[in-house]
Amino acid sequence: MSSLRAVALCCSLKRSPAPSSSELIAREILTALADHDVEGDVIRVVDHDVRFGVSVDEGDGDEWPSLREQIIAADLLVIATPIWMGQPSSVTKMVLERLDAELSETDEQGRLLTYGKVAVLGVVGNEDGAHHVTADVFQALNDVGFTIPAAGATYWVGEAMQTIDYDQAGPKPDTTGTATKTLAANAAHLARLLRETQYPPV
User: Fold this and answer.
1) I need a labelling partner for 155 at 20 to 30 A (CA). Which of 10, 29, 37, 92 fits?
2) Environment class of residue 161 by beta-carbon count within 10 Å: exposed (0-12), middle (13-18) or buried (19+)?
3) Which residue range(s) make up the domain with 41?
């Protein structure tokens, strides 16, 4: 199998080196992807000066262009987000807004540069909302050209109104681990298919 490249955007509200459940699930996804010959790195978005906006470069020191360069060079995009008030984090929403600029970026055959790239999602929180977050994020990613694999999300949700986070929890449920492995297998499979056979020209 040819090796693939993934970039994981951790959309925690916490700057490094603070512990992050979102980063933990992002790394677990990358570990599962490594079993399918996919290499990748985690980027904690708040560690970078990413500006609000909907262009590829907001100027004045905006660090999104360097993150975008890694996304465009990769075969797979991993988004890892916490749940806040039943919603994806504000950092996740900012990332999606920046990706909106990809609607104006095309190759010589008129395809978005995100066509042929696979996107998957990891969600963590101590309240309900994982399915809602998944629906919102996947809709946005698909709108800007990413392809979503079957079973492309994995999540852990702790007991409501409690303070235990994913990175503090004891043994993780088999369901989350199985979902992560399935996500990785399907995403790597789909990414290889798209690398070999790109979408038709527009």
Assistant:
1) 37
2) exposed
3) 4-196
